[in-house]
Design brief:
Blueprint: E1 4-11, H1 15-23, E2 47-50, E3 58-65, E4 68-73, E5 78-83, E6 88-94, E7 101-107, E8 110-115, E9 120-124, E10 132-136, E11 146-152, E12 157-162, E13 177-184, E14 189-190, E15 196-199, E16 209-216, H2 217-221, E17 233-238, E18 245-249, E19 254-258, E20 264-269, E21 278-283, E22 289-293, E23 301-305
């Protein structure tokens, strides 16, 4: 059965136009949907939490409870709990061996951790002494370089974003797209067709103009567009109040806001002077936005942006 998937097309203008638009962009200047208002000021964080050296290569974050954010870093199979009130790591829990861990999604007392080769680790009762780790290899691979993970509370499934190759090994190629796949937490299986496709067309080093296109997957496959680094998903989060899907890219720094139906609501640049390397994203239950950055030449951090819907 043919699914209707969403594609983001990014067109080119002149260098001077994009430079001016990036430097003078307001919160709403890049909106792809008329009348949409972005509720965060990404040019001015409301708080910055400097992280200990162990989290210099922080790769993913997820809201846990109260003022606690669960964090993961690239190499160690350890879940770190960061207390935003005390501004320090309050606890840490080991769940396995060294690997290449890219993101984390916490729901109640269960933590899901994503490895870059598509393997998922389900850590039950992760904050208890009797925690249990279950490992679920998927049909994704290191070629996909999976970096984004989020748990859908209403649907009881995970969404997994591929930074690199969008298609599954042995399947028809999806060059020119970034894919987001769905993993069922009841049957522990990955759905083979992407849940979303991000279509990157006519690209150079800058994103100039944005608009929304929709079409069936079989037509998208025939476009045969070249892969490019204009948007490489590094993290995802679902807004707790309006159910929007936020997808960030570290290289280059970009944020895409999508409806759950796949409609693009906003595409925003992430200023490199503020976001050194955005790798993780999550929300508090009240809607405050948190984005974590790896520390390239110093300490990693987590930036907080208050939710301002009006």
């Amino acid at each position: 059965m043919t699914r209707i998937l969403t594609h983001i097309s990014i067109l080119t203008l002149t260098f001077s136009c994009i430079l001016n638009s990036c430097l003078n962009a307001s919160n709403n200047s890049d909106t792809a949907q008329t009348g949409y208002r972005f509720a965060y000021d990404l040019t001015s964080p409301d708080a910055e939490y400097k992280l200990q050296n162990i989290l210099r290569e922080i790769s993913g974050i997820s809201w846990y409870k109260h003022n606690i954010i669960a964090c993961i870093q690239d190499e160690q199979a350890v879940i770190y709990l960061f207390d935003t009130e005390e501004e320090r790591i309050s606890d840490s829990y080991s769940f396995g061996k060294h690997g290449d861990y890219e993101d984390i999604a916490v729901y109640q007392d269960t933590a899901w951790v994503l490895e870059s080769n598509g393997t998922l680790y389900k850590v039950k009762k992760f904050s208890k002494e009797n925690r249990e780790t279950l490992i679920y290899p998927t049909i994704l691979s290191a070629r996909n370089n999976t970096e984004g993970l989020v748990y859908d509370v209403s649907g009881k499934y995970l969404l997994i974003a591929c930074k690199n190759q969008s298609y599954l090994n042995g399947r028809e190629k999806l060059n020119g797209f970034k894919a987001i796949y769905r993993f069922g937490t009841s049957d522990n299986k990955l759905k083979e067709n992407p849940e979303f496709l991000i279509d990157l067309t006519m690209v150079n080093d800058f994103i100039k103009t944005k608009y929304l296109k929709s079409g069936p997957l079989n037509l998208a496959k025939k476009l045969n567009l070249k892969d490019n680094p204009v948007f490489q998903p590094s993290g995802m989060a679902i807004h707790p109040l309006n159910d929007e899907l936020y997808v960030i890219s570290a290289t280059p720094g970009k944020l895409i806001v999508m409806s759950r139906g796949g409609n693009i609501k906003n595409i925003l640049p992430l200023d490199k002077s503020i976001f050194s390397q955005p790798e993780g994203i999550c929300f508090s239950p009240e809607g405050d936005l948190y984005i974590s950055n790896e520390g390239k030449n110093g300490r990693g951090n987590i930036l907080k942006f208050h939710y301002r819907p009006i």
